[in-house]
Design a protein that fits this description.
Number of strands: 25
Helix content: 10-25%
Mean pLDDT: 90
Number of helices: 14
Length: 585
């Protein structure tokens, strides 16, 4: 039977006794600060200063048995047979796959293992202000990510994911209490203050009205009477209704109605993504034209296909990182734009404002204060940090966005050297390390210079892999960005190895998050267990149910049917629910 390991900093003899008996509680991870100027990890935690810290739910007196309820080990939302618009229902579970790519699984390990840590990963929530003037829905013919019929329900869907995590009884394999939630970027969709406010309230709790502009009505592409978009309330036979999309009277009024989030009952941490940092997720920030356009009263809803194709081809290859071509196009299309209600709340937020919002006491929830970020980050103008996951496990959150523009990422030399120093210190302290970032190793190919640090080199995924693989402590690199489940083994030098765990988004079907558990098998190996979870919304939908829960269920079903959406994002069975084995360094 699995044993629960303490992550409090109690005396080791007491900790060992409690771990052996299972009568132990797991405290929250406590974020380290970064020293201004040097960006070194500092150990001045709230606990060390005698201040109260957020704690997770206590473990029961005896270890819990493995369980499946509320996870994809029990059931998965699955399309019913048929063509056209497909309804969802309960489908068969996804089984667990044992992967021995990096180390052979030894028999009897389940009876020996000790739980070291357990946490939940959210990624790519993409909370969307769907009425934002800078959104480029008119490019939907070029890319399915430009507009999705479900995205007006993104807040309701994210709240339902929070509800799912709050209902979990612990870690599915070891029974360990869950220590925290980490969200690995693209928390917002368009670098808008409206979206940032909604995200922080979803995570920490509060009332959210997912509307901007006119406070009394929706003003966007879904009541434009344009056949290019699903017009849910109208009788218009738009392009999506021709594919079987339903008419749902009252949909838009419900979509902008107040939503209430209970907030996570676990501590949570935040990692930044390109959609959090860059307008449109791809253009360098700081352009006054885009800032003024974002809060203004004009919105483009249609564009000639040839013009749209040229723009998107340029975006994909990174040919317009500052958005000069995009700005010229918007200027040329002024006469075709529609009037909308201006709203200062749609303004883009700066990196400093992003940090300040996380540090705002109104958004602390269960903590920690700043959700990983600190006043030292503000002073140093950095968005990377370390935090304590467990006694012997350190978390490292990276900032892989490139302020020079483009949706792919990289690291600057200063941050890469900080990462190397952090890993060396963890090695000296005999610690394990889990690294978090938004971008995957394969999507870190953007080496464009950061305008704020002229002359500083940028480093791509191959270099980051080399650094991680050269250090014994690294167990896993956890990320998102690709919107697809993928688990990749990386064998480093001298037998060192680690797993890269990439998780699907919560905006595109199948809308998943992931529970990750770390366990010592006491046979020279470590097991990482990954278990995918869905939101708490029912798999089946009812078009007449426009309650908060009904909208969350509809959010999932609409994402299944989104025209042009990829069908491979759930990955293979070996990318979903897994046991990942590696040698203990």
């Amino acid at each position: 039977m699995s044993r629960i390991r303490s992550v409090a900093t109690a005396a080791r003899d007491r900790r060992a006794f409690l771990a052996a008996t299972g009568a132990v509680s797991l405290s929250a991870g406590i974020g380290f600060a970064l020293r201004p100027g040097t960006s070194e990890a500092a150990t001045h935690t709230a606990a060390a200063q005698g201040q109260p810290i957020a704690v997770s739910r206590r473990a029961p007196a005896a270890p819990l048995a493995p369980y499946t309820r509320g996870t994809t080990l029990s059931s998965v939302a699955t399309a019913r047979p048929g063509s056209g618009y497909r309804r969802l229902g309960d489908g068969p579970a996804w089984s667990r796959v044992v992967r021995g790519d990096l180390a052979a699984p030894a028999s009897g390990r389940a009876g020996r293992r000790t739980a070291l840590a357990a946490f939940v990963q959210f990624t790519d929530l993409h909370l969307v202000d769907v009425q934002h003037p800078l959104r480029y829905e008119y490019l939907r013919a070029q890319t399915a990510s430009a507009w999705r019929p479900q995205e007006s329900l993104s807040v309701a869907g994210a709240v339902s994911l929070v509800e799912r995590v709050n209902a979990l009884r612990g870690a599915p394999v070891t029974g360990s209490p869950l220590h925290f939630v980490m969200t690995t970027g693209d928390n917002t969709d368009n670098n808008a203050k409206t979206e940032l406010d909604w995200f922080l309230k979803v995570m920490s709790g509060g009332r959210i009205t997912p509307n901007s502009g006119d406070p009394a009505r929706y003003e966007g592409v879904q009541n434009s009477d344009l056949k290019l978009y699903w017009q849910p309330d109208a009788a218009l036979r738009d392009a999506d209704k021709q594919l079987g999309f339903p008419r749902i009277e009252g949909f838009l009024a419900a979509a902008i109605r107040e939503v209430r989030s209970p907030g996570l009952n676990l501590p949570w941490y935040s990692t930044v993504g390109n959609h959090d940092s860059l307008p449109g997720g791809c253009y360098a920030p700081g352009d006054s034209f885009f800032a003024e356009f974002a809060v203004g009263g004009r919105k483009l809803m249609t564009l000639d296909e040839s013009v749209g194709t040229a723009i998107w081809k340029n975006v994909k290859k990174g040919g317009d990182p500052k958005g000069a071509g995009f700005r010229e196009m918007l200027t040329s299309q002024a006469r075709r734009m529609r009037a909308v209600t201006p709203d200062e709340a749609r303004a883009p937020f700066t990196p400093t404002e992003y940090l300040q919002a996380h540090l705002d006491p109104a958004h602390t929830g269960t903590g920690p204060v700043g959700h990983g970020y600190s006043q030292a980050n503000l002073a140093a103008k950095t968005q990377y940090y370390t935090f304590r996951i467990a006694d012997d496990v350190l978390g490292v959150s990276l900032d892989t966005t490139d302020p020079g523009g483009h949706y792919e990422g990289s690291l600057g030399t200063t941050q890469l050297r900080w990462l190397e120093r952090t890993l060396k210190a963890a090695d000296r302290n005999n610690e394990h390390v889990v690294v978090f970032s938004h971008h995957t190793s394969k999507s870190m190919r953007n080496l464009r210079e950061d305008p704020a640090h002229p002359g500083e080199r940028r480093h791509g995924g191959d270099e980051v892999l080399s650094v991680l693989g050269a250090h014994r402590p690294v167990l896993a690199w956890v990320n998102g960005h690709s919107h697809k489940n993928a688990v990749t083994p990386h064998a480093g030098s001298d037998g060192r190895s680690f797993w890269e765990i990439s998780t699907a988004s919560h905006v595109d079907f199948p809308q998943l998050a992931r529970v990750i558990e770390i366990a010592d098998n006491h046979d020279g190996t470590i097991s990482l267990f990954t278990t995918l979870i869905e939101s708490a919304a029912p798999h089946e939908t009812d078009f007449t149910d426009l309650s908060q829960t009904g909208l969350a269920a509809l959010y999932r079903e609409l994402s299944l049917n989104a025209p042009g959406a990829r069908t491979d994002l759930s990955g293979t069975p070996a990318d979903r629910n897994t046991e990942l084995i590696l040698k203990k360094g």
